[in-house]
RNA sequence: GGGCCGCUAGCUCAAUGGCAGAGCUGAGGACUUUUAAUCCUUAGGUUCAGGGUUCGAGUCCCUGGCGGCCCA
């Protein structure tokens, strides 16, 4: 504590002992003319390649093969004249290195014991061997520091608290292999979706995230400001209105995978920024999108698990194979209530049903909105196996085409898996006059203070007036797809989720 | 938004209102075949923050912060 062995720029007395010790080791290296953070270190082969090439090497064998390897120190077992260390590489592969007095010499062995801590990144050059216990190892002739860690690693064999996992994902990634697996799984899923859509001749585009008007969904937007335009801008809540402009222009199969932003609650299924796939296909409808969506998810499952049966992190298996259940919104409500409910059922009757099942009712709700609330209250959580819920009331789906058989309904489905909504699709409303009426009604709500209502996007309506082909459109939450495939919470599927300031 | 639970050493956790502890990690020492090595010695604390009750508060009360679970 009285030693002045840390640089003056560091408030030494504020640091825990273990961090002071590591800083002191760094300083000692510098004082001895050794780089604690060299620009390069020798590396001729990955740990994974060694494991692959020497998989069959028998116990206590010397190969004569010289290699240089790198990795993070995750276990140290040091003896007087022989030290063992377990190195781990980015892909999770671990390999043992051995440093013996007769190979590296007394001086370098002492420096190893003096300078190397758990968590450091080191490079080791030596011979590939197996130990007397049969452990594949690099028997060092020399070693060097790749990067000195100034903070101690958390205990490797106790789980990190959930909060630390999220706030310090880099630590989570270092100590928990599953955290790294999740990153890989997500990349695999996104790549699979892209390939699935490319195979069906969809084009990938990027549409504006900064928008003058927010639309395409009902949600509260984030507001930001453009100095150049001296105007407020919205972070998009959905790419829908721009993707439809693309379809108007003749991009007949189009999709985007990117972030949307919604200024709403944060919980185990909602993140303020979330990744979404949105896809449109001209001359298709919600039935076509239903088949494709199932195929894309099944192809993603295949990419991740090699099968349509995915295994969640808690070991439960979820079968996403075959055809999926299909029910109608009103059919599901009727079954749950034991009463016949249709689009014709009036608001007063629905309110009586709501009271019967102890659902709180907002007097501003339309009959359609109340029907949806009844569904969410009674049915949603029961839909564990993948289920398409079809045919929603017009009042709650302003951008959806009227149902071709039943007046008052629209051609929209929601896909539920594991009790939450994973995707939605419409036969798109392409009549510009009706579209204008619907958006005008929305804009009146917005002007009246409903922060979730859409604003009137005249440019979008102008585009529609040039004629949009009859189309199917779908949207799916990427984070939620990961949740469905892995069983993880949304904050585990997002690498760096938004957290409250510390 | 409401209810409940939690926040203590670098990490994971203990501690009837009565001396703040353990394991791992760290430091010093022993060990040339270890696998979360082992053995000996030892250091480490603004108990989330701020008030209050009390002779005495990690513990009880209040306010706030952060997190988790359940409900809306």
Automatic annotation (TrEMBL):
Cellular localization per UniProt: Cytoplasm
Entry EC number(s): 6.1.1.6
Primary enzyme class: ligase
UniProt GO cellular component terms: cytosol
Amino-acid positions noted as binding Mg(2+) 2 in the UniProt annotation, renumbered to this chain: 421
Cofactor: Mg(2+)
Residues the entry annotates as binding Mg(2+) 1: 414, 421
Keyword annotations: Aminoacyl-tRNA synthetase, ATP-binding, Cytoplasm, Ligase, Magnesium, Metal-binding, Nucleotide-binding, Protein biosynthesis
Catalytic activity: tRNA(Lys) + L-lysine + ATP = L-lysyl-tRNA(Lys) + AMP + diphosphate
GO biological process terms on file: lysyl-tRNA aminoacylation
Cofactor descriptive note: Binds 3 Mg(2+) ions per subunit.
InterPro entries membership: Aa-tRNA-synt_II (IPR004364), aa-tRNA-synth_II (IPR006195), aa-tRNA-synth_II/BPL/LPL (IPR045864), Lys-tRNA-ligase_II (IPR002313), Lys-tRNA-ligase_II_N (IPR044136), Lys-tRNA-synth_II_C (IPR018149), NA-bd_OB-fold (IPR012340), NA-bd_OB_tRNA (IPR004365)
Family the entry assigns: Belongs to the class-II aminoacyl-tRNA synthetase family.
Record's subunit section: Homodimer.
Name by which UniProt lists this protein: Lysine--tRNA ligase
Species of origin: Actinoplanes regularis
